[in-house]
């Protein structure tokens, strides 16, 4: 099993709830102006904003591999946004249960 699997994401997410909270907030903002968007784009915005506002202290260090997991969690948690993020593999229902 790889480092960025669902089980590892659940652990990462529980240890860092503020990261998903910001991801969710930015995804909702993006949805207000777009029908679809990129999870990677949101992660990049998070890093950019963190860099500008935290003066390099406390910058977000989020591996891009978590992007699809955040996208799956977002759409599982908020089914009305299903399809906002394009996924390359089938949704894993365990994200909704454990994340």
Please supply descriptive tags for the structure shown above.
99 residues; mainly alpha; 58% helix
Word description of this protein:
This protein is an all-alpha fold and 99 residues long. It has one domain (6-98). It is 58% helix and 0% strand. It has five helices and no strands. It is globular. The two termini are 18 Å apart. Residues 90-94 have low confidence and may be disordered.
* Largest sheet: number of strands, sense, barrel closure: none
Strand tally, please? 0
- The percentage of residues in β strands lies in under 5%
Mean pLDDT: 84
Oligomer: single chain
Overall helicity: 55-70%
Number of helices: 5
Low-confidence stretches: 90-94
The SSE order reads: HHHHH
Tell me the number of structural domains: 1
Radius of gyration: 13 Å
Q: Which of globular, elongated, flat, extended, rod-shaped describes the shape?
A: globular
SSE class = mainly alpha
How far from one another are the termini?
18 Å
Quick recap of the structure?
By secondary structure, the chain is mostly helical. 58% of the residues lie in helices and 0% in strands.
């Amino acid at each position: 099993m790889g480092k960025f699997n669902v089980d590892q994401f659940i652990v990462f997410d529980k240890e860092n709830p503020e990261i998903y909270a910001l991801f969710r907030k930015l995804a909702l903002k993006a949805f207000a102006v777009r029908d679809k968007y990129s999870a990677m784009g949101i992660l990049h915005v998070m890093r950019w904003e963190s860099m500008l506002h935290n003066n390099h202290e406390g910058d977000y260090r989020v591996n891009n591999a978590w992007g699809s997991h955040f996208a799956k969690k977002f759409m599982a948690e908020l089914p009305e946004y299903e399809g906002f993020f394009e996924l390359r593999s089938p949704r894993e229902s365990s994200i909704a249960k454990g994340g």
